[in-house]
Amino acid sequence: MNARVAAPALSPALEWINTDQPVTLESLRGRVVLVNFWTFDCVNCINLLPDLRYFENKYHDGLSVVGVHAPKYDYQRQSAPVLKAVNRHHIRHPVANDPGYLAWQAYGVQSWPTIAVIDARGQLAALLPGEGRRQETDTLVAHLLDEAAANDQRVYESSVTSARPEARMPLHFPASLLATDTSLWIADTAHNRILECNHEGRILRQFGSGNPGYWDGRNQDSGFTDPRGMTIVKDALYVADSGNHAVRRIRLLSGEVETVAGTGVLGHDLPNEQVEPTRVAMSAPTDVAALGDKLYIAVSGQNQLWQLDLNRNKLGVLAGSGQFGNADGDGVAASFAQPTSLSVIGQQLVVTDAAGSAIRLLRLLDGRVTTLVGKGLYDFGDVNGKRDVARLQHPLAACADARGLVFVADTYNGKIKALNLRSGELRTLNLPYRFQEPSGLSLAAGALWIANTNAHEVVRVDLGSGQVKRLTIGD
Fold it and tell me: Could you name the CATH architecture of 5-150?
C-alpha cells in the first residue's frame, strides 16, 4: 500500500450535534475510523448511509464511524436542522457540523459524500468519494483491522452510540401526503409506513410494518423503507419507496402491496422496453404522478424522470440526461438536479428540482423542459417577485391547481409560496404558522394539506378562509 500520512486532527471548533463529548482521533487510536463527509440535502449522501450501518454492524469490534456535516445551504449552517436530519435518518454515530469547512479543507475533500479511512495508528489510508463503493471499503477496513491485530494495536471494544432522539409522536418525519375528496394518505417516512386517514386525522389503515424492510404482503404485513410520494390510479395507490429504490402498488380494495418497478436494491440501470420493470435497478425514486395510463417517476438519484406504461408494463426514460444540471431542452437533452416531486397540470408536469432550487415544467406532448424559477445549482435564496429574480432554497414539493397556481414548499426557507403560471409572479403565503422543513403538499376538498416534516405533523390550510389547523393523527 502507499505510504500513509497522519490524518488531520478534527478541529475543536466543530459543532457536535448528537453527543456532549467532542470526538478526537487520539481517543480512537487502535480502531479503524471512517470519517463521513456529507450534507443532508444530498441524495447520494443518503444512499451511502446503509453502507455505513453495514460497516458499523459488521465491524462493531474495531471500527468507529464519525460524521462531519459540511453544509451546502445557508440554512444547514445551523446545528438544529442537522440534528433533525441525523434523527430522520436514524444515525447513531457521532456527527459534527462543519459550517466553516474546517475539516473539509484539512482533508482536501472535494465532493459529497466522501469517506476518509483512517487506520488504527491515526494514519490516513484512503479518501473515497462517491457512493457505491461498499465492497472496496469493506476490503480496506478488513485489511486495516487485520493489520492492527497483527501489530498488537487493535482495540476490540464496541463503539458507544450517540443520540439526542426526538420526542415520541404519532408521526415521525412525514415527508409526503396525498389528499382526495374523502381521504388523506400520509407517508410516515421515518416510521416506514403509509397511513390511510380521514380528513380529521383518524387512522383507518396502515401499510408497512413500521420497521424498514422490503417485502410484499397485505396491509401491515409488508415492508417499506423511507416511503415518499404517492398517487392514485383507479383502485391503486402507487408509492415511491425511496429507501428500497422501488415503486410499490397498494391495491386499495384488498390492501395487497406489490412491486411494480425497481429491484429493492440501489442501482443505476437505464430502463428500456425489453426489460421487465421489476428487474431495473434505480436510485432513490421520490415521487410519482399519473395521467391516464402513464405513471411518471421522479428518479432523484439518477437526475431523471421515468415513465411507466401501466397497460403495457413498459418502463422508459421520459426526460433528463442523467447528468447533474439545470439545462432546459427536449427529453434527454435536458438535465435535472435531484428532481423530487411531480404534479400534473393539464398536459404538463410541474417538477420540483430540489438541488437546483428550481421549479421546472415538462410538456408531455413533446418532452420539452423549461425552467419556471431558478437560475443555477448554487444560486438560491428567499426572494419573491418575477421569475427572473425569484429564488428558493431547496424546495421539496409543489402542487398545481387547474387555475395555473402552483403551491411550493420552499423547504429550507420554512415557507409555503405560490407561483402564478400566467403572470410568473412568486409570492409567500402569509400564514400564521411556523413551518419546519415542509416537504409535502396536496390540494383537495378546498384545502392545501402540508406535511410539516420536522414538526412531525400534518397541517390543513382552508383556501377560502386562510385558517390553519394542525391535524390530530391517531386511531
Answer: 3-Layer(aba) Sandwich (3.40)
Whether the predicted pLDDT of 1 surpasses 50: no
DSSP single-letter state for residue 474: B
Q: What is the full DSSP assignment across 156-181? A: -SPPPP---PPPP-S-SS--EEEE-S
Cβ distance 111 to 130 under 8 Å?
A: yes
Residues 6+ apart with CB under 8 A from 399: 343, 350, 406, 407, 441, 442, 443, 448
The pTM for the full model equals: 0.97
Please confirm whether the linkage preceding 113 is cis (ω < 30° from 0): yes
Name the CATH topology of 176-470.
Neuraminidase (2.120.10)
Q: Are 18 and 94 in contact (CB under 8 A)?
A: yes
Cβ pair 31, 118 in contact under 8 A = no
| 285-326 confidence digits (pLDDT tens) | 999 999 999 999 999 999 999 999 999 999 999 999 999 999
Buried b (16+ CB within 10 A) or exposed e, 361-371: bbebeebbbeb
Residue 298 or residue 274, greater confidence: 298
Length of the chain in residues, anyone?
475
**Domain residues of the chain, as ranges?**
5-150, 176-470
